[in-house]
Design goal:
With 267 residues, the protein is α/β, with parallel strands linked by helices. It has two domains: 3-88 and 246-265, ATPase, nucleotide binding domain (Nucleotidyltransferase, domain 5), CATH 3.30.420; 98-240, Nucleotidyltransferase, domain 5 (2-Layer Sandwich). Helix content is 40%, strand content 21%. It has eight helices and ten strands. It has helices spanning 37-50, 83-94, 134-144, 148-154, 169-181, 186-207, 224-234, 248-265; strands at 3-9, 13-20, 25-32, 63-67, 79-80, 100-104, 109-114, 120-126, 213-217, 237-239. A five-stranded mixed sheet has the order 3-2-1-4-5. A hairpin with a 4-residue loop joins strand 6 and strand 7. Helix 2 (83-94) packs across helix 8 (248-265), helix 3 runs parallel beside helix 5 and helix 6 (186-207) packs across helix 7. It is globular and about 60 Å long. The termini are close together. The mean pLDDT is 89.
């Protein structure tokens, strides 16, 4: 059995996936990224390889592709491919019916239109401001003195929405702290935050060609409050993926590795 790896070195988390030659996920890991991208990749790849019987080291993989913020630092990678292409391919092999993606990473937001073969048709990217990214949600959770998981659920029971006017992460955090201090309902403040992020995603979704449905990828895809807010703002269905949405970049990289590896080394 041949095995193929994908490693997505992000600014916040590093993800790795190993596929077998039949496209079955053999193992996957998600680790917090270090300051050094090469160290992050080495840790993730070491862990993901150790979970597969018959593999002892990274070199035992037939083919390895790096992607993400630190894609050039993945040890022993045969090549690197942009995270935009890898997220598109990862979603495509998970659910080929999905043609539009919003990827919310640690430091940027991307809208991606997926072609019939899983390649990128077009994309839009907001990388000039941290508002609406993973870093933004971490700041909001700090303001509420709760975990990201707790924050993602907080707005689901809100009866009303308290709008958040600030667009900047720093100013928004100050605004939220003030509202909490005034005793405003925490769930309604959280609903306002989710709504503000959903509105920022609106342009990305339209540029990605979203019509009837869209998929969320990245760690923020696990934010149930954001999913609900997006469905209300975009007026379309947010499709839930069968595989962890945070792994989509690494999964797509592994699929590219499988395709290329089978072409070169397949029987």
């Amino acid at each position: 059995m041949k095995y193929f790896g994908g490693c997505d070195v992000g600014s916040t988390y590093t993800k790795a996936v190993i596929l077998d030659e039949n496209r079955k996920v053999a193992s996957s890991v998600t680790v917090r990224s270090k300051m050094n991208s090469a160290e992050s990749a080495e840790i993730a790849m070491g862990e993901v390889v150790s979970k597969v019987e018959g593999l002892e080291k990274i070199e035992d993989l037939t083919y390895l592709v790096g992607t993400g913020y630190g894609r050039n630092k993945v040890p022993q990678a045969e090549e690197n491919i942009s995270e935009i292409s890898c997220h598109a391919m990862g979603v495509h092999i998970t659910n080929p019916d999905v043609k539009a993606i919003i990827d919310i990473g640690g430091q940027d937001v991307k809208g991606i239109a997926v072609a019939e073969d899983g390649t990128v048709q077009t994309f839009a990217m907001n990388d000039k401001c941290a508002a609406g990214t993973g870093r933004f949600f971490e700041a909001m959770a700090r303001a509420f003195e709760c975990t990201l998981d707790e924050f993602s659920q907080l707005s689901l029971d809100a009866k009303n929405v308290i709008p958040i006017s600030a667009q900047c992460t720093v100013f928004a955090e100050s605004e939220v702290i003030t509202l909490v201090g005034e005793g405003k309902p925490r769930d309604e403040i959280a609903a306002g935050i989710q709504q503000a992020v959903a509105k920022r995603c609106f342009v990305m979704a339209k540029k990605a060609g979203a019509k009837d449905s869209i998929a969320l990828t990245g760690g923020c895809a696990k934010n149930m409050g954001l999913k609900e807010a997006l469905e209300k703002v975009l007026r379309i269905k947010v499709v839930e993926l069968d595989i962890d949405p945070q792994l989509m970049g690494a999964l797509g990289a592994a699929e590219f590795a499988r395709q290329k590896g089978m072409d070169v080394y397949g029987e």
